[in-house]
Design brief:
This protein has 21 helices and three strands. The protein has 416 residues and is mainly alpha-helical. A three-stranded antiparallel sheet has the order 1-2-3. Helix 7 runs antiparallel to helix 8 and helix 19 runs antiparallel to helix 20. The mean pLDDT is 85.
């Protein structure tokens, strides 16, 4: 985290998201190839009595030779001192880079540095029994104790948006917006807070806000490649599909990473360009064969445009290692469509047991019971789905469609 925060303040140095890097197994050159990194920063830490011996190196991505190396010893019980010392040595290692104007200097207590690192590890590699609500609460506590830790704002907003997607609880969307507003007030010209604001704007379809924040990123960091993916998504939402695809292709020429290939493939799927999407997913998987996000993208493609049996097989493999509600929900849908009603019921119950209040999951669960001949249990779940839909406030087309289905199953055909 010390390296990421230091790099975020240097001109023309853009650290790649740890989640993108952590998905790759292999040596420095393999990692660099998969994420299109010019350089890889490596670190080794050895505990020697009461001190940490730390070695950091800059390694060229093309051939693996060491560009720069430094050593330091720090007391093992002071994580903030460790972070600050690493940052100081990195400044020496990147002495040819000036500090970018508007970059925010992160600060936090040693305890909150440590707490954040531990929570982030659970977010990026969630255990099977992960509670996202607990993680959100922990991030909020860290932010309130150490308001200068910008990293926690962006992660907390992301977790809140995830909870909104899986539960449709509007309070999580409000939470995400409030956290981003605080981050922008604190660090208005730091691209990390601006990118997080774009993520939120795109998630809620606020295209005007997304445009404003992207323009600001392009002003303060014109060589930042990470805004291009957001720009491509914005163009798609604005209806300019060809320009969106052109930007994606340009980004892949500049950074042919597994994540950029996946973004292009997902865009192509939404536009019905299935064979091209398959090709780009295959290219991405060749870079990161064990990546769960790529496996899920392939499973989604099979679900919508290929074989349901293959989609079920892929999702079963995914949830065996990462039983997250979004993957379980789609697995249950595949099982429902295949007529495996008992397996589908069990899968949908697993989703709800993780705290989801999704009307779509409840409606699918009700359909499972109905198709299996259990009309009484089906009616209870249609009623619960209807109640969740009515409690969600303003209804979009999908909500209205689900409400009509529930009413029809409950006998209110005229109202449906």
């Amino acid at each position: 985290m010390a390296a990421i925060n230091k790099f975020a303040g240097l001109d023309a140095v853009f650290p790649i998201c740890p989640r993108e890097v952590d998905a790759i197994d292999g040596d420095e050159q393999q990692v660099a190839r998969a994420v299109a990194a010019d350089e890889v920063l490596t670190a080794t830490v050895a505990l020697v009595g009461p001190t940490c011996r730390v070695t950091i190196s800059r390694v060229a991505g093309a051939d693996g030779h060491v560009l720069w190396m430094d050593h330091m010893e720090i007391p093992a019980d002071d994580i903030r001192l460790l972070a600050e010392t690493v940052a100081a040595h990195l400044a020496r290692g990147f002495s040819d880079r000036r500090t970018r104007e508007g970059a925010f200097t992160v600060s936090a207590s040693p305890e909150d540095y440590e707490a954040y690192v531990k929570v982030r590890a659970r977010v990026y590699d969630p255990p099977p029994d992960v509670s996202w609500v607990e993680i959100l609460d922990e991030l909020k506590v860290i932010r309130e104790r150490s308001p200068g830790l910008l990293n926690v704002y962006t992660l907390e907003s992301s977790v809140a948006r995830y909870l909104y997607r899986t539960t449709r609880d509007e309070s999580y969307l409000v939470h995400s917006r409030e956290v981003i507003d605080e981050a922008l007030a604190m660090a208005p010209d730091d691209y990390r807070s601006l990118l997080a604001a774009v993520d939120l704007a795109l998630a809620i379809n606020d295209l005007e806000a997304a445009e404003k924040h992207l323009e600001r990123i392009e002003e303060i960091a014109p060589s930042n490649p990470f805004g291009l993916g957001h720009r491509a998504r914005l163009k798609e939402l604005q209806g300019d599909i060809e320009e969106s695809l052109r930007i994606h292709q340009m980004l892949i020429e500049f950074r042919p990473t597994w994540s950029n290939l996946r973004r292009l493939a997902r865009t192509e799927v939404r536009q019905g360009r299935i064979e091209s999407a398959r090709l780009h997913l295959d290219q991405a998987i060749s870079l990161a064969p064990d990546n769960v996000f790529l496996q899920a993208s392939l499973a989604e493609l099979e679900m919508l445009h290929g074989s349901l049996e293959r989609a079920e097989e892929l999702y079963l493999n995914i949830v065996a290692n990462s039983p997250q509600p979004q993957y379980l929900a789609v697995l249950g849908t595949a099982q429902l469509l295949l007529g495996r009603y008992q397996e589908a019921r069990e899968t949908f119950h697993r989703v709800l047991q993780q705290g989801s209040q999704s009307p779509a999951v409840m409606l699918n669960l009700a359909d499972c019971y109905s198709l299996a001949g259990d009309s009484r249990e089906a009616a209870q779940w249609y009623e619960r789905a209807l109640a969740e839909i009515d409690a969600s406030g303003a209804l979009g087309p999908e909500d209205l469609g689900r409400k009509a289905q529930c009413l029809a199953h409950l006998g209110s055909r005229d109202e449906a």
